[in-house]
Amino acid sequence: MGMTSFTDFLFLTDEVEGFKQCRETRSAVSTTAIMCTKGHIDVYYRDEMLRIEKGQLFVRVPNATELGPYEISEDFEFMMLAIPNALFEELMYDHMRVEPHWWQKLEYLKENPTFQLDKRAIEFCNLYFRLLQLQLSDEHPTDYRIQIMKMIARAASMELLNYMDKVVTFDDMGGVRSSVNSSDYLFKSFTQLLREYPHAREVQWYAEKLDITPKYLSEICKERSGKSASQWIAEITVAELKQYLRNTTLPIHEIAKVMEFPNASFFCQYTKKHTGLTPNHYRKTKRN
Asked: How crowded is the C-beta side of 127, counted as CA atoms within 13 Å?
């Protein structure tokens, strides 16, 4: 069940009608954050149509281009937070003491408003949204509760600045040293997962960890490296099994167990498929 709640300084919604209401009454004077949790929204921004997809966060900061016409997919789901520009700028000024590039990050956001979030960042967004929902559900908020909501908004803004350090770095003069677009970031995250969990071996498993579809993961891998996700997985697996066969005396069934294959028979079939040789034959002909 969707919910739209607001005060003079905070607007929170996960309803399309609430999204429309905020655009009509607050969009020009508010800093807006939209996290897409399902489907997508195409919105006109900076003279072009921008697509915000599942797992992506869009942030419109003060003095940035206003959002124009938009279209949403039938399954579009999202969470949206809007606060007055003055409050957002106040929060940014508060961060000056701990964030040397806060102004550069603000300028960067005007040109690059969309981020692909990792699973941890999505969890944080959900938590902040839920905390604000609970605070706003109080029908008789006290001064304490108002300050608590502002502190939650402050923490969320710091989380944004912290997350930006993962996708963009600045030089000593405040210029952008390097940046990572969403597909670059996802590809990097996939290869990191592959190093940490090489025995999962299913594209579906890695896609679920990244909160994207297997098809999209393979498209990203093809785009960034020329190889599909399944090819990457096979290469890592084959390199490891070759290492065991060449440089150890472990029995085949033990290697299968260590590499978390269902059984030795499946391991043998996999080795034959990808090397053209049975494990024992490979071991005899390729041993150093």
From this structure: 10
